[in-house]
Design goal:
Two copies of one chain form a homodimer. Chain A is an alpha/beta fold. Chain A has a single domain, classed as TIM Barrel. Helix content of chain A is 45%, strand content 15%. Chain A has eleven helices and nine strands. Chain A has a seven-stranded parallel sheet. Chain A has a two-stranded antiparallel ribbon with strand order 7-8. In chain A, helix 4 links the parallel strand 2 and strand 3. In chain A, helix 4 packs parallel to helix 5. The two termini of chain A are 26 Å apart. At the A-B interface, helix 5 of A face helix 5 of B.
Chain lengths: 266, 266
């Protein structure tokens, strides 16, 4: 998504050119390209598909909407399995229109995980629940902290449900370091993503993530915490930013690789 | 601030007309009008000044900036005392330019409270530290949860430092209910403010608060929690919203009073 202006073949080429060994994919471009073809493309390029983003949006009250969401998540699991990734990132969903019941919405997520977890496990996929920044609690994700995400995940086997940690969403939280350790100790730290925090936030706040090193987040410190918790997987960079998407994709890719080396490692 | 288009005399008149017994004031209009004159105006109208907003911005690293901030906060304490309110709301401040050290910034707030607390107590004023929504952690307030605010406040006597609870900032936090109880039990729940959460957030996210009842927050439930924690003071409504400020002040005042009755009480 960081370089969404690239086609999937361009993305694979850029990864190979710049020595990036893996890539997190989003469902929409994968489905447009064709799931088997995308799987073949990444495999032929020697790339690991780190995660598929994303399933979720499991908070609907209406039975029809809820059934449709579960169906869609089962499809997402199938797509993840076909791509050869073991991790499907889930963004839980916000409050249904008119509802003020955060607790109820969180319980519906648990109900959905109970249905989806075994389905995913049978296909070798784990569900990686992602807490989103509290500014998204109403309209996108009622799971706002890593502690909440783990409280939900730990109701289920670690072979079924874990968490995604994204620095953009948790950097402000003084409890997050201990929660990363908790996730690691439980074998539930399934994905680790980086983005920096810059202000002012844009209208709608979705597409204002900062290039690595430009913002307030101590990326090295968070990387060290993930490592100390036993995270040995690849690290993703996930930026949503209109200004970045307006730049030539290859140049942005190269800049992101340079920033990753400069701001994430000592 | 909700009706900042009104002059202070208009504000006092509206309070009397609509039966609102008290008002939270901001420093800028009070200083423009003159502190003794504003105090007299509110007293003559029979109004309680619930709080003065705001002191704070105590995270500077440069010694000169830090000394200036402490001076300004002592002036804010003096103004609060002159207005006859016992509560000065503090917004702690964000990260200094270029800093990524949230912990250090939080410790500088504690250092400042150690200097300001006794000064305030001698003048009959308590400092009410306000956690702001995590979306303000970088640029406005490194204290992002009520638990953090209480962790800081409890290092000092309850006669010096307490907290402000604003639904807009804490509504997403599943730990906030227990923290309101903690604040009440410790005699530190000094101010209780209401605003609703609406989306999309505007550019800069500061002036997008929702009119009571229009958003995602269960205001009745939070009011009940504050009452259960022993809050017997007046409740403030604090909306920053460009659209509301563009409306005629008296009409907005009347609408806010109507919404307060409809959405806050059973």
């Amino acid at each position: 998504m960081t370089v969404k202006q690239l086609t999937l073949p361009e993305l694979a080429d850029n990864c190979v050119e710049f020595g990036v060994p893996g890539v997190g994919l989003w469902r929409e471009p994968v489905r447009s390209y064709g799931v088997p073809a995308a799987a073949r493309l990444m495999r032929d390029a020697g790339l690991t598909v780190t995660t598929l983003c994303r399933g979720g949006f499991l908070t609907a009250l209406a039975p029809g909407e809820r059934a449709a969401a579960l169906d869609d998540n089962r499809r997402a699991v199938d797509e993840a399995a076909a791509l050869g990734t073991t991790t499907l990132v889930l963004v839980s969903g916000g409050l249904p229109a008119g509802s003020k019941d955060l607790h109820g919405a969180r319980e519906r997520i648990a109900d959905a995980l109970a249905e989806l977890g075994p389905y995913a496990e049978e296909r070798g996929v784990r569900l990686a629940l992602e807490p989103l920044h509290p500014m998204f609690a109403a309209d996108r994700c009622v799971v706002s902290t890593l502690a909440q995400a783990l409280d939900l995940a730990e109701r289920f086997p670690a072979e079924q449900v874990g968490v995604t940690v994204d620095t953009y969403h948790i950097w402000w939280d003084d409890r997050a370091p201990e929660q990363i350790a908790r996730a690691g100790a439980g074998g539930r730290l399934l994905a680790f993503q980086l983005a920096d925090w810059i202000t002012p936030l844009p209208h709608g706040v979705l597409n204002g993530r900062g290039p690595l090193g430009d913002g307030a987040i101590d990326l090295r410190a968070w990387r060290a915490l993930a490592e100390a918790a036993g995270h040995t997987g690849l690290i993703e960079v996930e930026l949503f930013n209109e200004d970045l998407w307006a730049r030539p994709g290859r140049e942005l890719f190269a800049d992101t690789v340079r920033r990753f080396a400069a701001h994430v490692f000592d």
